[in-house]
Each structure stands twice: as structure tokens, then as C-alpha cells.
Amino acid sequence: MLRLVVLVSGSGTNFSDLLERTRAGSVPAEIIAVGADRECTGLDIARAAGIPTFVEPFTSPRAEWSARVADRIEAFEPDLVVLSGFMRLLSPEAVARLSPALLNTHPAYLPEFPGAHGVRDALAAGVAQTGASVIVVDAGVDTGPILAQERIAVEDDDDESSLHDRIKPVERELLARVITDIAEGAIDLHEVGARTPKTQEPS
Fold this sequence. Notes:
The chain has a domain at 2-105 and 134-148 and 171-193: 3-Layer(aba) Sandwich (Rossmann fold), CATH 3.40.50.170.
């Protein structure tokens, strides 16, 4: 069973979903700590569940803050770190310490629409489809190896909120699948650079 540290910044809805799956036994992992860059609802959920938490408020320079975050994470000796709505970029040095066991979900079909506004950018581009992705975090912005993806149709009446609401459940399912595959050996994170992304087209 994988030992997970999850980083959050906001409401923690994706984290909450993952917590339910791990405790139900559908994902063979245990969330051993939850960290954040600020006080947030995600931390409240973790505390209510009896999970250790930590807060490392962002300060400049980023490299020093990132090193402290990595120190806090490594103290728990996790097998995997999951960024779940964590809204800060870690420094390349911190990423190098944690990767490839450092995952993130993204609300677009990467490499399409990277960055903080993937849903908004997809709508602005007028595409018929966007998607969701799970990646290994690298030193770039949403440029790491892709572990799983799924396409999602953009409806004519979609706005940013409605489209994001339909992407989130897909992100959660993909993340659960990837973590399960890692736990069961179907994904070897040390070989992901040579892997072909797992893709699923809409039915």
C-alpha cells in the first residue's frame, strides 16, 4: 500500500474524493499527511479525518520556501506526493528531490492549454474537446510525462464553471486509476519518460 502526502491550497474536493477512495479500499494507498501553503478547507477535511497536517506559508525567495516544503514532505517518508489543487509552483530543485514520485492533475488534454487557466483557455480557443490529464511534475509548467488522459466534449452552452464541473470527476477517476496502477506495478515511475501516455477517447 502506497503512503501518500497530498498538497492542497483550497477547498480540497479532489483530496476529499481521494481520501474516500483510499479508506474504502478502492485505491490501495493511505494518505499519511496533508500539507498546504495557507490555511484552507482542505486542511480542515484532513484534520477532521485525523490525518497529520502542516502549513508552510509562501515566502520569497521561492527556492528557500520550496526547500522547506520538500523537507516537510520528506519527513513523512511518502511513496508518492500528490498535488491536489496546490496553487504554488515548487522550485526545480525541490521538484528534483521529489520527482518522479510527484503527481499533478490538470484540467486539459496536455500538452494543450497548460498553466493555471486551462479551462478558460480551452473555451477561449473555441475547441470542440478538451480533457483531463495526470502527469509527473517536472521543472516546467505542466510539461512532465503524461500518465493518463481522457477527452471531454465542450458543449455549446458551457462556461468556465460548467465545463470545469464536468472535468473534475474525470480528473479524480484518472488520478485514482494512476495511483492504483503505481501501487500494483503497472506504472513504473522511474520509466515513465519512455512510456506512451494512457489515453481514452470519449465513448
